[in-house]
């Protein structure tokens, strides 16, 4: 929501400084509810609409300014749906369904390759869903499609694959190793069986330990582990126990996620409201532990060892994630001015029917569902992508890109500086350590009113 105090600032072209009392009020508003919306993409996919008329992909991609592209493949199948998940995925283990899906993805790749072959790929990621749910032959096929059809050069691109513990086998990890995968990311969420059960993710910790031992044998340059805090039945101590278990495997990277619930996820907001909200305590305790163990904080969720990386010399790629070529149903594609995807759904019925349409499709050469980014949305995206990461926003880069001043365009950003949630050093705007902990409410405050109207709303306590 836009605060009246923001308006006051805006009407004065950023020159008005609020009184100490007004600033306190504004800061209290930001910090009162730290978990408002997770802006893993901006604009969020729930703001996408029909594009009429559909946009020919040839025209969209031929002028895309990114130096190198990001190739993404989406595998929208899982063994079961986790209770907190609102991703585009379907619980379906049937091998014949997976094969038909990869057939469609290959068909799509053959058509898209002609639009995108003029630029190299600096990154390749296979996500989902659970890509390692696929049988070995289908998993191997994804790399063949990437290299032989899309033109991926695995020696200059970082390659990342998402995995889940129960799907990992020697044969599948051998395929990943032979395909020059640099990073394996595994969702664990919790090492406590009762906490996993509470989020409808029946997971025996022994299965997780088995997968971690197996991954250790293959020694991928980057192992990332995902954990969630704020689970029903979790305490700060049990959260730190899970984190400590993960750290004992010395992963190069750890993502820690606050639990979000929405009306259409299986775990409902009420399930969380029955217990006190411990998420901020968990975050602060985890941050302290991770930093004491030598991890650097890159965002509210991402911590990594500074030395973590691959031996490859990777092509340059903007952290703004433009030039993202998303293959598969549920994948998003980003050009600088248009974001598009297949339709979005979460319920079983909706997901099933969207995947069925995708598999039956013969032509994939137009974008018919997405969002055209106005100049203002491009600016807001540019700012958000930068300030929610520790690298921050190089203020001169804003002028270079948009030809105008950051402070005149968005004077309300100065509120961050005045409340010490943000700082400006050597021309770079970053969030302070305190501000980083409120990334989700700062992001939510900064998105435009128009996008906010269209977005799925997260439920506040
Ligand atoms: S959280 Fe991951 S494993 Fe669970 S349903 Fe969602 S995509 Fe599948």
Automatic annotation (TrEMBL):
It comes from the Bacteria. The keyword Transmembrane helix does not apply. GO terms for molecular function: 4 iron, 4 sulfur cluster binding; catalytic activity; metal ion binding. Residues 63-301 form the Radical SAM core domain. Gene3D superfamilies: Aldolase class I. GO terms for biological process: porphyrin-containing compound biosynthetic process. GO terms for cellular component: cytoplasm. The keyword Flavoprotein does not apply. CDD domains: Radical_SAM (cd01335). InterPro entries: Aldolase_TIM, Coproporphyrinogen-III_oxidase, Elp3/MiaA/NifB-like_rSAM, HemN_C, rSAM, rSAM_sf. Keywords: Iron, Iron-sulfur, Metal-binding, S-adenosyl-L-methionine. Coiled coil: none annotated. SMART domains: Elp3 (SM00729). PANTHER family: COPROPORPHYRINIGEN III OXIDASE (PTHR13932), RADICAL S-ADENOSYL METHIONINE DOMAIN-CONTAINING PROTEIN 1, MITOCHONDRIAL (PTHR13932:SF5). NCBIfam families: PRK08208.1. This is Heme chaperone HemW.
């Amino acid at each position: 929501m836009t605060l009246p105090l923001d308006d006051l600032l805006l009407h004065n072209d950023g020159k008005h400084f609020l009184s100490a009392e007004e600033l306190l009020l504004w800061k209290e508003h930001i910090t009162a509810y730290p978990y408002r919306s997770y802006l893993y993409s901006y604009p969020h996919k729930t703001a996408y609409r029909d594009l009429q008329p559909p946009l020919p992909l040839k025209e969209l991609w031929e002028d895309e300014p990114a130096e190198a592209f990001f190739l993404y493949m989406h595998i929208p199948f899982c063994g079961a749906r986790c209770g907190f998940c609102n991703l585009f995925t379907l619980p379906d283990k049937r091998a014949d369904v997976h094969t038909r899906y990869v057939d469609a993805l290959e068909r799509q790749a053959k058509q898209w390759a002609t639009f995108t072959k003029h630029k190299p790929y600096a990154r390749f990621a296979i996500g989902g869903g659970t890509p390692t749910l696929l049988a070995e032959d289908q998993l191997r096929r994804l790399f063949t499609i990437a290299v032989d059809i899309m033109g991926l050069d695995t020696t200059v691109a970082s390659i990342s694959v998402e995995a889940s513990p129960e799907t990992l086998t020697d044969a599948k990890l051998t395929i990943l190793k032979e395909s020059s995968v640099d990073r394996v990311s595994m969702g664990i969420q919790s090492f406590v069986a009762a906490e996993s059960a509470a989020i409808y993710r029946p997971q025996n910790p022994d299965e997780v330990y088995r997968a971690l031992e197996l991954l250790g044998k293959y020694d991928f340059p980057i192992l990332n582990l995902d954990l969630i805090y704020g689970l029903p039945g979790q305490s700060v101590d049990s959260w730190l126990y899970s984190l400590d278990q993960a750290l004992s495997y010395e992963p190069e990277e750890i993502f820690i996620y606050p639990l979000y619930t929405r009306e259409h996820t299986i775990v409902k907001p009420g399930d969380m409201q029955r217990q006190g909200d411990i998420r901020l305590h968990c975050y602060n305790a985890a941050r302290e532990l991770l930093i004491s163990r030598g991890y650097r904080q890159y965002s509210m969720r991402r911590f990594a060892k500074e030395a973590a990386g691959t031996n490859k010399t990777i092509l340059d790629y903007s952290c703004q994630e433009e030039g993202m070529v998303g293959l598969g149903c549920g994948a998003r594609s980003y050009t600088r001015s248009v974001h598009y995807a297949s339709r979005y759904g979460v319920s079983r019925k909706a997901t099933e029917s969207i995947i069925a349409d995708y598999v039956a499709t013969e032509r994939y050469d137009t974008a018919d569902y997405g969002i055209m980014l106005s100049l203002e949305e491009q600016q807001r995206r540019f700012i958000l992508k930068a300030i929610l990461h520790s690298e921050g926003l190089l203020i001169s880069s804003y002028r270079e890109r948009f030809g105008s001043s950051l402070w005149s365009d968005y004077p309300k950003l100065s509120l961050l500086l005045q409340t010490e949630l943000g700082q400006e050093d050597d021309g770079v705007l970053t969030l302070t350590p305190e501000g980083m902990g409120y990334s989700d409410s700062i992001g939510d405050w900064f998105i435009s009113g128009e996008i906010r109207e269209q977005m799925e709303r997260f439920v506040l306590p």
